[in-house]
């Protein structure tokens, strides 16, 4: 689970899947629009700016504005295992 923030909206929870250094797949009820900027919050990390790059039913793919550092990615990947 991650926290997601949309411009002008409160934070809400989302499930993260297919996580990579460049982005991830998110599933939730309040779906953002294609090309919308959102902010993703993983525990113990700062907000990550991301852009919605695809939308499919209740899932979206987001691309992080900056790829995660390899060490940060490995720490998060270990948590998801």
From TrEMBL:
User: Which branch of life, at top level?
Assistant: Bacteria
Identify the InterPro entries for this entry. Answer: PilZ_domain
PilZ domain boundaries: 11-72
The protein in question is named PilZ domain-containing protein
Which species? Answer: Sphingomonas anseongensis
């Amino acid at each position: 689970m991650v926290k997601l923030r949309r411009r002008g909206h409160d934070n809400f929870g989302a499930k993260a899947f297919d996580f990579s250094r460049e982005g991830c797949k998110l599933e939730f009820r309040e779906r953002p629009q294609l090309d919308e900027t959102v902010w993703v919050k993983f525990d113990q990390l700062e907000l990550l700016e991301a852009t919605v790059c695809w939308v499919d039913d209740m899932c979206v793919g987001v691309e992080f504005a900056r790829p995660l550092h390899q060490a940060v990615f490995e720490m998060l990947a270990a948590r998801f295992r």
